[in-house]
Amino acid sequence: MYTVYKFRLRPTVRQARALGEMLRDHRSLYNGALQERRDAYRHVSKTDIKYAAQSAQLKEIRAFDPEGQGRWSFSSQQATLRRLDKAFDAFFRRVKAGLTPGYPRFKGAGHFDTVVFPKDGDGCRWDSTPSDRQTRVRFQGIGHVRVHQHRPVRGRVKTISVKREGKHWYVVLACDEVPTAPLPASGSIIGIDMGVTHFLTTSDGEHYENPRFLEASAEALAVAQRHLSTFPKRTRSRSKKHRSAVLTVTKLYGKIRRQRRDHHHKTAKALIRGHDVIAHERLNIAGMTRAPKTKPDPDRPGAFLPNGASAKAGLNRSILDSGWGQFLSILAQKAESAARRVIAVDARNTSRTCPQCGHVARENRVTQERFECTACGFFANADHVGARNVLSRAGLVLCAEA
Fold it and tell me: Is the whole-model pTM more than 0.85?
């Protein structure tokens, strides 16, 4: 099994400064490689430079700048160049698919916060021992940095990443061959329906409340962002007050992110402990949160007809605040670790199908919360109906496999 561990680093002042310099130099390498690709394509007969050619230049770059690029791990610099190569591969893939291309951008100081070491022991070594919870990790050019290891690491450490979030530093360990810890069988199968009014509803009729962390912090965020917007552009790069305002906004978003993730972990853990099989809808979250297309007004050139964009923006914000994608990913990881099973079923018409007679109609969904069948008169909570239909479809999958 594959698992990722994330631990807080406790660097000294000198080490924190060195970590910042490491990020700066890797960002400079990324931006320089991007500039080289842009120039080659524009000025040298549309030549496309690949990763292999840029990686071959690293030896010369390190020799030319021994106090900068030469200080850091060669393999981590290769990983940074691979990161750029993947960005270009994704760009060309989107171009071929007819999607919005999204050409790779230069990374500013606040948009490059991770350095990857592809192999444990090559530029970075994890010095953990099974009995030691307060351990250290060694980075080339920095030394041994203290780590707050709040849980034991299992399996084999494959890659190590160092990440900055605001003023804090973290080490992220990607491990494989992690042993599972099966839970005793419960004999229970359940379906869940993700929602906005309720975070999720089970086929047993139990509602899990939606904490709406972003909405709860909206007022504090608005105040912090208004303060941030008052700084003129010419002073932003050298103003200590501006950096403080940016940090305030970053802290608020970080708190929201941690609260949401904690809620997802606790909810997933409760479901995994109580049920052997958990079924959910196969959701296209990117499509569900896409802004509606504009509708040109034929009678007024340059004007547009109402398309419900404002209401859709509010719904999109609520869906993204719930974090369905992250929750389902965490649920799948915990299920694999506990030898449970998660089944994704077709999401079409789960909230429009009557669980009693099977009648499918848009009119069955009277309101956001109320379901009433136009054929047999069955009525219930719409989310509960959706969860029951999800469970029914999961049962068909299990029967087909039997």
Answer: yes
